[in-house]
Write a structure and sequence with these properties.
Structural class: mainly alpha
Distance between the termini: 24 Å
Radius of gyration: 14 Å
Strand content: under 5%
Shape: globular
Mean pLDDT: 90
Length: about 160
């Protein structure tokens, strides 16, 4: 069993986006859908395809730091502030599994680094295209919409 969609959105995704000064409801909904599709909202946090809610692999994590965050020291400092002080130094990829806010920040920055235009709050196909482009190129749009229906639909009001 994963994390309840409403609580994930309210207590992890929204505060993380606000902390990063990137908050908008479309971003919240996109990240919620990605978490639903990648890990069934945390039902499976570690596997061959990557770590945590968003299943981010080690290489993509490091590349984001080296190629994107290295260009913005202030943002890098903010993201680093979400990580555990000692654990990050010993195993930064483990933070993707055990630290929900850090994983959410990294997932959002993977989206931001691609400079995509966010779809409307309720545009599941548009969200699915971004998920497939950034997180699972072999995925089917239907995989995203089915994960949304199974993990989120009927459990989360769109506007809140």
């Amino acid at each position: 069993m994963g994390i309840a969609a409403k609580e994930l959105r309210q207590h992890v995704i929204r505060p993380t986006l606000i902390y990063l000064d990137r908050h908008c409801v479309s971003a919240e909904m996109l990240l919620l859908g990605i978490a639903a599709c990648q890990s069934a909202l945390g039902s499976a946090l570690h596997g061959r395809r990557g770590h945590g809610l968003f299943r981010i692999d080690d290489q993509r994590h490091r590349t984001l730091w080296d190629d994107y965050l290295a260009r913005d020291p202030d943002l890098a400092s903010r993201v680093r502030g979400l990580a555990s002080q000692h654990a990050f130094l010993g195993g930064p990829d483990l933070e993707l599994t055990v630290n929900l806010r850090y994983a959410t920040a990294i997932a959002w920055l993977l989206v931001e680094a691609q400079a995509v235009t966010l779809p409307a709050v309720d545009d599941r196909i548009g969200q699915a295209r971004i998920w497939r482009q950034i997180f699972n190129p072999q995925g089917r749009l239907r995989d995203f919409t089915e994960a949304w229906q199974a993990c989120v639909d009927q459990k989360l009001p769109v506007a809140s």
